[in-house]
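Sequence in, structure out. Go.
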Amino acid sequence: MVANLLEKVVNVYESTPRLIPKGSSPIKEVEKDLYDQYDADGSKRRLFDKLNETRIRPGDVVRVTKTDKSSFVGVLIAINRRHLSTNILLRTKIGGTGVEERFNIFNPAVERVETLRVPAKRRKRSKLYFIRENTKLDVGDVDAEIRKSERRRV
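Output:
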């Protein structure tokens, strides 16, 4: 019986090669690859970086242009920063009716995000949901206002 225990052999296999550098997180490596894929030049990341002085903030008038050349202009009400799922909520009025649209920033269909106007006085809130109900604070047709001001400059 002692002889049977000594005859058993345990196979040892070579370890597989490392696909990511030692000490780094696989999730961060995948996230980095996706950032490189969806935002190669880093322009969208800089727009929403909290350490950047020229970042987009709630209250700014923003234009989002899609790859099909359609654009939406509105006041930025909220920013939800969730890495690759970062999205913004824009509000404008079209024909007297309030219209809000949420855009996922790193969506390949979103071609460009640009700031058109920065308010002279900032509000002290990170989410400006309260302007929806208040007729004094609610936005007008922002796209028409921007077009008018561009015509005046020319």
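Check: The mean pLDDT is 87. The radius of gyration is 25 Å.
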